[in-house]
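User: tokens in, sequence out, please.
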């Protein structure tokens, strides 16, 4: 490796040497005045950072392994937040940044069909704006207002919202809005790498520095699915992501960057086991229906001409499962009007699963998608920063309200016609 000094021009090297000598020989009685230091330091405006810890059940915060999150909660605001129904990843991440429940925001499931495109299936890898264009995420309005945004992963943030994808061929997208900076999700990117990317964005000059940032972690959800919410492995994943939160806080402090942190989860997690499986194929004849999704809930449609036969068995009382016609789903779920929702929904009791096949006898783990008011589905909410009062606990609220809070924090006017509002946060927001 070349010596470092070879990369410094001679004049600069001489100047550097003189400066170093001056530092050595300067009398201790002549320190730099604090006012001079303050005058040379940049005064940074608070940045808003929305952090999602996928699958972080609200009560994970009480396991004694989250010193960083617990410190932020004690010095800020905490709540057990209600996810939207269905309590799945993509519907809830989109609800958080649009302020609309899945029935209105269009992302009604992790996997879905649209009647206008019957040959296509939406998956968690789908970036065709067609599926996302029902309502705009917050970075679209931020862009219109000249507020820079950056997303270190967030479901839907890689989509050119409002754009159009050509069908066939290379499927090129024309038009649309993305965050100013965004990253295509890659699970192999570690928590520390994700945090470092955010800190790097915030090192930029003010003119190109984001004012709204998102950061996403998936490992707690993965551990909860594989091992169950009560497993030591899940607790270890909780501790690990807490360490990444600590890295974020330390990185912000090193930059002297004030931040309003809004740390959330999309849903909780419930334990599952093979013994708690409902066999939908033993309740209804598979020849009578098409199954779209299964697990904590199932969605189906009848084979044409078999509607009456299917309804007779499906809508009858069942142990640990309730089924409805789409139009008769209870109003409290705020779910059932969107054309992407199939004609029938069956919801299992918490910790039970619906399947059309026999599970492995030793199958255990965890899942989500249950009744969004179930305690096991409650999601983490912690907020800390100059905009928030300290040591406050809020009653449970709907996650669509977070969108309204984010608008307040970055200086956007209140949105009209959305499902969420900021009323629950008014008592804990400081005057700014």
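Assistant: Sequence out:
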């Amino acid at each position: 490796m070349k010596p470092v000094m070879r990369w410094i021009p001679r004049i600069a090297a001489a100047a550097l040497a003189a400066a170093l000598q001056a530092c050595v020989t300067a009398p201790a009685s002549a320190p730099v005045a604090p006012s001079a230091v303050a005058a040379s330091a940049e005064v940074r405006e608070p940045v808003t950072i929305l952090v999602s810890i996928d699958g972080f059940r609200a009560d994970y915060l009480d396991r004694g392994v989250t010193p960083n999150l617990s410190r932020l909660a004690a010095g800020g605001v905490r709540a057990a937040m209600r996810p939207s129904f269905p309590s799945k990843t993509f519907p809830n991440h989109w609800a958080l940044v649009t302020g609309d429940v899945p029935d209105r925001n269009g992302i009604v499931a992790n996997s879905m069909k649209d009647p206008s495109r019957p040959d296509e299936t939406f998956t968690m890898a789908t970036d065709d704006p067609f599926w996302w264009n029902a309502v705009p995420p917050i970075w679209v309005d931020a862009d219109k207002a000249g507020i820079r945004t950056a997303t270190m992963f967030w479901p839907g943030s890689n989509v050119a919202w409002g754009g159009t994808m050509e069908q066939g061929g290379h499927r090129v997208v024309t038009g649309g809005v993305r965050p100013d900076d965004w990253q295509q999700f890659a699970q192999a990117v570690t928590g520390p790498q994700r945090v470092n990317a955010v800190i790097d964005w915030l090192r930029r000059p003010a003119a190109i520095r984001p004012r709204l940032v998102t950061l996403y972690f998936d490992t707690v959800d993965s551990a909860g699915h594989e091992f169950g919410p009560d497993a030591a492995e899940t607790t270890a994943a909780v501790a690990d992501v807490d360490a990444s939160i600590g890295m974020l806080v330390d990185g912000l402090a090193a930059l002297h960057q004030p931040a309003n942190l809004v740390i959330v989860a999309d849903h909780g997690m419930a334990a599952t086991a093979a013994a708690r499986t409902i066999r939908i194929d033993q309740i209804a004849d598979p020849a009578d229906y098409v199954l779209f999704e299964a697990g904590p809930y199932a969605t189906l449609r009848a084979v044409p001409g078999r509607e009456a036969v299917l309804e007779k068995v499906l809508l009858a009382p069942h142990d640990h499962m309730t089924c409805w016609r789409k139009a008769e789903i209870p109003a409290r779920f705020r779910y059932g009007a969107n054309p992407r929702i199939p004609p029938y929904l069956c919801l299992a009791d918490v910790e039970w699963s619906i399947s059309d096949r026999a599970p492995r006898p030793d199958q255990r783990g965890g899942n989500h998608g249950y009744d969004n008011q179930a305690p096991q589905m409650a999601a983490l909410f912690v907020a800390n920063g100059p905009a928030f009062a300290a040591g406050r606990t809020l009653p449970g609220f709907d996650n669509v309200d977070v969108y309204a809070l984010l608008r307040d924090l970055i200086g956007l006017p209140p949105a009209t016609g959305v499902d969420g509002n900021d009323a629950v946060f008014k008592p804990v927001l400081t005057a700014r």
